[in-house]
Amino acid sequence: MKTILVPTDFSEQAENAARYALHLSKTLKSNLRLCHAFFVPADAPMAARIAWPLYEYSTMEAATHKQLHQLVKKLAYSNEVVSNLLSFQPSIEYNGVAGEVIPVINELVEEKRIGMVIMGMSGKGDYEHFPLGSNSRRMIEGGSCPVLLVPGSFLFKGIKKIAFATDLNQDDVELIHSLATIASKFDAEIIVIHISTKYKKDEVLERKETAFLRNIRELTNYQKIYYREVKNSDIDMGLDQLGRDGNIDMLAMVHRPKGFFGKLFQGSHTKRQANYISIPLLVFPAHKRTSATGLSKKMLSLY
């Protein structure tokens, strides 16, 4: 089953992410599955002070299903507004599940063969205030599925240009290959971006670039892939420069905790980057049990 999973907490930001997912699914010809975990997560401030009696779960489950059903009706109406009789009509299903958010998502990813998870961000790239709190970051760090984070006020206007930020790790070649499958559905360009903190290119970097681009050409039969080196001593500012100058519709990168971009999701870099990212951010989560090939297959399962 070709399916995109959309976790929701019924906030405006989450609903906006669901609408974005609907537009994406129509072009990718994928179905949608909404989910909400109604168990109070362990990191919620009130969790330690509130005991949830077992008899209340049926009430909570019924309320959750009612809200999910209402969201499905909203999305179905939005689909009618933008659709024509010949366009693909995605099915929209949902799950209201008792449990913690991340285990619920991961279980659905495996059970329903999910190719991508789409979640909302609050405001302009606000990593510190995801609608699902710290769970979004935990999903990136511990999940096995690509996660697309959509800014709360971002409206879908098609995809013409996707930037893939890379540190020239050879594992990224496989992911660019799967990203090309998405890009081809929109006839979009992929700009492979390397942010170099060295203003003078040395022979080692030149050889690394040459090998990386050669492997992309050998694996990926997509003509609209281009390479660009952005020179900036600060990675955050380099991505900011990319967003301002590149007219990018989506930014993609791999989150490797000890890698070149890993620190963007930690500490002060996260807060600084929150001021810059105002476009959807597709994050391939690096996980010790998940290879680049495995992530690529999950993405390709959308088609």
Give a short summary of the structure:
The protein has 303 residues and is of the alpha/beta class. Helix content is 40%, strand content 20%. The chain is globular and about 65 Å long.
Structural account:
- This protein is of the alpha/beta class and 303 residues long.
- The protein has two domains: 3-150, HUPs (Rossmann fold); 161-300, 3-Layer(aba) Sandwich (Rossmann fold).
- 40% of the residues lie in helices and 20% in strands.
- It contains nine helices and ten strands.
- A ten-stranded mixed beta sheet has the order 3-2-1-4-5-10-9-6-7-8, sandwiched between helices.
- Strand 9, helix 8 (267-273) and strand 10 form a beta-alpha-beta unit.
- Helix 1 packs across helix 2 and helix 5 crosses helix 6 (203-219).
- The longest helix is centred in the N-terminal third of the chain and has 26 residues, at 57-82.
- The protein is globular and about 65 Å long.
- Mean pLDDT is 78; it is low at 123-133 and 267-275.
